[in-house]
Specification:
Blueprint lengths: L10 E6 L14 H17 L4 E6 L10 H7 L4 E4 L8 H8 L5 E7 L1 H14 L3 E10 L3 H13 L3 E3 L1 H9 L5 H16 L13
Parallel strand pairs: 1-2, 1-4, 2-3, 4-5, 5-6
Length: about 200
């Protein structure tokens, strides 16, 4: 297998249904950890100027409330509200992704078995290199999420994590953006309670 590091110039991030009332349904990743990973992915998107698309499910009343960690890193973004369980069956979301002209699609969302799985399968069928950011996703149960990830793997979809993405994007961390990416790694490790994590003296 040929390994090609993630190229931020060819990547786009899809944040799917990371909203009040749905994010809390995650049974495979605690909401606080899920929000932390989503925030880290949003920070990496900002650092490396990776375009992001936010899609939400229709709420029973009013506008869907997107988790604030995304806006904290990227500012308030317009969201594309769907009535489909597949982002690629919703014209506005599909076109927003296509308009970036980027072919590596990173997906974060809830639920893994529904919007994440269906969108990833459709994207892969349309020629995208799809990567599921597992710690920025939440499933309805460990059993059903495992089944979804297994199916996605069989379809050629790659599983990854915010830490892996940060490490790939960092590249040469003697450069400013590389050091910022390592800083995001440090924040993840610190939040997870990993002590003495200080690669190359990024933090005193």
């Amino acid at each position: 297998m040929n390994y090609v590091p993630l190229d931020p110039r060819n990547a786009v991030v899809l944040f799917a249904d990371l909203q009040a009332g749905i994010l809390e349904l995650s049974a495979t990743c605690e909401p606080v950890r899920l929000r932390r990973a989503v925030g880290a992915l949003a920070k990496l998107s900002q650092i490396f100027q990776i375009p992001t698309v936010v899609t939400t499910a229709a709420a029973e009343s009013g506008e869907p409330c997107v988790t604030p960690e995304i806006a904290a890193a990227l500012g308030v973004l317009a969201s594309h509200t769907r009535t489909t369980t597949d982002a690629f069956l919703h014209a506005a979301t599909r076109e927003a992704i296509a308009q970036t002209k980027r072919k590596t699609l990173l997906i974060a969302g809830v639920a893994t078995e529904i919007i994440v799985q269906h969108s990833a399968l459709s994207a892969a069928a349309q020629g995208y290199d799809v990567q599921i950011v597992v710690d920025a996703c939440g499933g309805l149960s460990h059993r059903t999420e495992y089944a979804a990830l297994r199916r996605l793997g069989q379809a050629g979809v790659v599983t990854t994590s915010t830490a892996s993405i940060a490490g790939q994007l960092a590249g040469d961390f003697s450069q400013p953006r590389g050091r910022q990416a390592i800083g995001v790694l440090y924040e993840i490790a610190k939040a997870e309670g990993i002590r003495n994590f200080d690669p190359l003296g990024v933090r005193a």
